[in-house]
Amino acid sequence: MHNKTLTELKAGLQAKDFSARELTEHFLDRIQARDGELNSFITVTREQALQQADAADQAIAAGDHRLLTGLPIAHKDIFCTEGVRTSCGSRMLDNFIAPYTATVVEKMAGEGAIMLGKTNMDEFAMGSSNETSFYGPVRNPWDTERVPGGSSGGAAASLAARLAPGATGTDTGGSIRQPAALNGVTGLKPTYGRVSRWGMIAFASSLDQAGPLGLSAADCALMLQAMAGHDDKDSTCLNEPVDDYLGGLDQNLDGLRIGVPEEFFPDNLDGAIADNARAAMGELEKQGAKLVKVSLPSIKLSVPAYYVIAPAEASSNLSRFDGVRFGYRCEDPKDLEDLYKRSRSEGFGAEVKRRILVGTYALSAGYYDAYYKRAQQVRRLIRDDFARAFKEVDVLMGPTSPETAFKLGAKADDPVNMYMADVFTIAVNLAGLPALSMPSGFIDGLPAGTQVIGNYFQEGRILNVAHRYQLATDWHQRIPGAFQ
Amino acid sequence: MSSSLFNGWEVVIGLEVHVQLATRSKIFSGASTATGDEPNRHASLIDLGMPGTLPVVNKEAIRNAVRFGLAINAEIGRRSVFERKNYFYPDLPKGYQTTQLAEPIVGPGEVVIQLDDGSEKTVRIHHAHLEEDAGKSLHEDFHGMTGIDLNRAGTPLIEIVSEPDMGNAEEAVAFARKLHAIVTSIGVCDGDMSQGNMRFDVNISVRRPGEPLGTRTETKNLNSFRFMEKAIKLEVERQIDVLEDGGKIVQETRLYNGDTNTARSMRTKEDANDYRYFPCPDLLPVLVSEEDIEALRAEMPELPDARKARFMDAYQLSDYDAALLASSMATARYFETAADHGGDAKLAANWVMGDLAAKLNAEDLDIAHCPVSAEHLGQLIQRIKDGTISSKIAKQVFEACWAGDGSPDQIIESQGLKQMSDSGELEKIIDQIIADSPAQVEDYRNADDAKRKKKIGYFVGQVMKATQGKANPQQVNELLQEKL
Question: What number is the ipTM of this complex?
Answer without folding.
Answer: 0.96
